[in-house]
Amino acid sequence: MVKKMYKRIVLIGAFLAFSVLGYAQGVSSFSAYKFVRFIQYLSSNYVDTINVNKMVDDAIIDMLSQLDPHSVYISKEDVQAMNEPLEGNFDGIGVEFNIMNDTLMVVNPITGGPSERVGIIAGDRIIAIDGKPITNIGLKIPDVHKLLRGPKGTKVTVTISRKGVAQPLEFTITRDKIPIFSIDAAYMAKPNVGYIKISRFAATTEQEFIDAMNSLNKRKLNSLIIDLRNNGGGLLGTAYEIANYFIDKGKLIVYTEGRNSPRTNYISTGKGYKFNGKVVVLIDQGSASASEILTGALQDWDRALIVGRRSFGKGLVQHQLPLPDGSAIRLTVARYYTPTGREIQRPYHNGDVMKYYEDLNDRFVSGELFNRDSIHMSDSLKYKTLVKGKTVYGGGGIMPDVFVPLDTSFYTNYYGKLVRSGLLYQFALNWVDEHRSELLKEYKNFDKYNKSFEVSSELIDELTKLADSKKIEKNEEQLNISLAELKVQLKGLIAQSLFSSGYYYQVTNGTDETFLKALDVLDNWGKYKSLVVE
């Protein structure tokens, strides 16, 4: 056993040595040999039994933590989960699910997916998988993934408990490719004005975007709102591809450059369809990376008005590099720059990740999220846009053209507890499950629901009673402050469960200050048109 471990360590060490010698500039062969020798000594001579593999992992994590906040180690177990949102699909049965009261419940089958094809419907409870009961066993989300996911073409049998049906139902499902959608909503916000909400930039996002635009164009689209709020980024190439649909051929969209990565220019190709209408982009402190690439390109070429709050400020490019045991590292290899030459990355202190992410809390405390005048940018970071010559800033995210303060007027401790506990979502899910047939009979489509459905005081009473039972004590004063927002959120969550996730935004955007400001900008375009190219 010891010999096998020793042999494995030597092989790992040899691999590391060759990797270091072959690819790392400035690292002597002596340093590589020194590290390998250390591992050999450790594994063969240390007094107690040790987990050398874990120590190597910990060493890699520690070294990366001293570089920048976005260079990270990904364990073998986590590689697939980390890649799926960017790849845009996985193999499985195709259901949105939740675990309620230790029971696996189908929230919605994915349209066109294998579960929908065999007749599984929203509200079904999966009580057994391949004959093995899964209720009341402390089921967790990773357990569900292991049980239901698998290679395309393989089969899994699920036993379903369905309301109104006395006996359990059994379905055999053939697993298939399941899309992970990166566009959460696409709809006409008002006549001629389209809205697209992009949650991440994945391999499938460009095609999703094209499909959404084709659908909106059928309804006489001439203005577009692109919502990138809380979009943490994704693939640089995808952001570049989407920018192509707005920027003329031959224009620089973004460029990257690093110590060992020569400058690479991404030039618009003018391929395919180009949208020439008015564009408004929504951003906030959660918009990062690829979101900032798209926003920066549209702002630098004066192609869109940017509405919201200053973006996150992540201008570093990572490459995922495999390690021999199936794990990987995402290593920062370059910085990206907008067409004017702006570097968007905000300052960071190597090894101090906590301080880096505390910046968002600092923005709250300093008042930046509530007042544009609280934002102070150095004159050395000033740039001029490429057509209109308006002033923009680098070195810390994208500054919006139109600032919208964060609305906290409805926020109370009571509201916060309802949301953070997941109780609001769980309540909406349960309530729809209990009333699904009557709701669908009353509201045959979303438009009727949106116009007619109101969250009643009785429904709020049900929510507060449930909260009381979960030791979230009702506070009448705070409830009244948060009541209007609670009703909007509940209506949106019920729409999401009853129809599909995109309808949540159609409900909640109706009272969203940033979204409403975007509509106002489009309604009063003459006031802003000096800032953009039409």
Tell me the layout of helices and strands:
Blueprint: H1 2-23, H2 29-45, H3 52-65, E1 72-74, H4 76-87, E2 89-92, E3 95-100, E4 103-109, H5 114-118, E5 125-129, E6 132-133, H6 141-148, E7 155-161, E8 169-174, E9 176-179, E10 183-190, E11 193-198, H7 205-217, E12 223-227, H8 236-243, E13 252-258, E14 261-267, E15 278-283, H9 290-300, E16 305-308, E17 316-322, E18 328-337, H10 353-357, H11 359-366, E19 382-384, E20 391-393, E21 402-403, H12 413-420, H13 423-442, H14 446-452, H15 457-469, H16 476-498, H17 502-508, H18 513-523, H19 525-528
Parallel strand pairs: 11-12, 12-15, 15-16, 16-21
Antiparallel strand pairs: 1-18, 2-9, 3-4, 4-5, 5-6, 5-7, 7-8, 10-11, 13-14, 13-18, 17-18, 19-20
